[in-house]
Write a structure and sequence with these properties.
- The complex is a heterodimer of chains A (112) and B (114).
- Chain A is mainly beta and 112 residues long.
- In chain A, 0% of the residues lie in helices and 58% in strands.
- The model of chain A has no long low-confidence stretch (mean pLDDT 94).
- In chain B, strands 2, 4, 5, 6, 9, 10 and 11 form a seven-stranded mixed beta sheet that branches. In chain B, strands 1-3-8-7 form a four-stranded antiparallel beta sheet, with no helix packed on it.
- The mean pLDDT of chain B is 93.
- The chains are: A mainly beta (112), B mainly beta (114).
- At the A-B interface, strand 4, strand 5 and strand 9 of A face strand 5 and strand 10 of B.
C-alpha cells in the first residue's frame, strides 16, 4: 500500500528564518511527486512536480528536491504570505489508475 | 480563464436529506475526482471518473453517489446514508487520465449539518 508521511505537522517560523518540510513516501514505481499549497478555505494550488531522484525545482522562495525515499520543500527567507498548509502527493502506477496518495500536510505559519 | 468551479461554497443539510454539490471544469480534462478533507487528515478519495459515463469508487464511497454525463461536469450527491457528512469537499481534474499529471482543484464546498 502506498504511504505518504509529512513532517512536521506544524511549523512556526520567524520571517526570514529558512527551514525545510519533509515528505517521506513508500510506493512501488513512483510516477511523480507533487507539492501543493493550500490556503484556509481554498483548494490546493499546484506548486511542483518531481519525477526522478536528484531532480530539483524552484519557484521564488521555494525549492523542492527528491530522493528515492523522500522529498524536501525548502523555504528560504520566508515571508508571512508563505503561511499556508503544504501538501505532498505521490503517484504510482498501481493498477493503472494513477490515483495520487496525499499526505496530511504541514501547516506553516510565518510570523512577521 | 480556465479552471474548476465548485458550488455552492457553503451548504447545510437537514437530517434525512440528500444534497448535491456541483463541480464544473472548462480545462477539457478527461479525469475528475471528488475528495473529502477533514481537519488534521489528508485528502480522502470519494469517487473518480476517467471518462464520460464511467466512474469508480474511491476509498470512502459509502453514502455518496456521482454521475458523469458530460465531460465538463461531475456532481456529487451526499445521501442520507452518509451519517457524518460535515467536511470540506474538493473537486479536482487532470488531463490524460491522470498519467504523471498534477491535479487542478476547485475552491471547495463546506458542508454542515443543521
Amino acid at each position: 500500500e502506498d504511504q505518504v508521511t509529512q513532517s512536521p505537522e506544524a511549523l512556526r517560523l520567524q520571517e526570514g528564518e529558512s527551514s525545510s518540510l519533509n515528505c517521506s513516501y513508500t510506493v512501488s514505481g513512483l510516477r511523480g511527486l507533487f507539492w501543493y499549497r493550500q490556503d484556509p478555505g481554498k483548494g490546493p494550488e499546484f506548486l511542483f512536480t518531481l519525477y526522478s531522484a536528484g531532480e530539483e525545482k524552484e519557484k521564488e522562495r521555494l525549492k523542492a528536491t527528491l530522493t528515492k525515499k523522500e522529498s524536501f520543500l525548502h523555504i528560504t527567507a520566508p515571508k508571512p504570505e508563505d503561511s499556508a498548509t503544504y501538501l505532498c502527493a505521490v503517484q504510482a502506477a498501481s493498477g493503472g489508475s494513477y490515483i495520487p496518495t496525499f499526505g496530511r500536510g504541514t501547516s506553516l505559519i510565518v510570523h512577521p | 480563464d480556465g479552471g474548476i468551479t465548485q458550488s455552492p461554497k457553503y451548504l447545510f443539510r437537514k437530517e434525512g436529506q440528500n444534497v448535491t454539490l456541483s463541480c464544473e471544469q472548462n480545462l477539457n480534462h478527461d479525469a475528475m475526482y471528488w475528495y473529502r478533507q477533514d481537519p488534521g487528515q489528508g485528502l480522502r478519495l470519494i469517487y473518480y471518473s476517467q471518462i464520460v459515463n464511467d466512474f469508480q469508487k474511491g476509498d470512502i464511497a459509502e453514502g455518496y453517489s456521482v454521475s458523469r454525463e458530460k465531460k465538463e461536469s461531475f456532481p456529487l450527491t451526499v445521501t442520507s446514508a452518509q451519517k457524518n457528512p460535515t467536511a470540506f469537499y474538493l473537486c479536482a481534474s487532470n488531463d490524460r487520465a491522470g498519467r504523471n499529471q498534477p491535479q487542478h482543484f476547485g475552491d471547495g464546498t463546506r458542508l454542515s449539518i443543521l
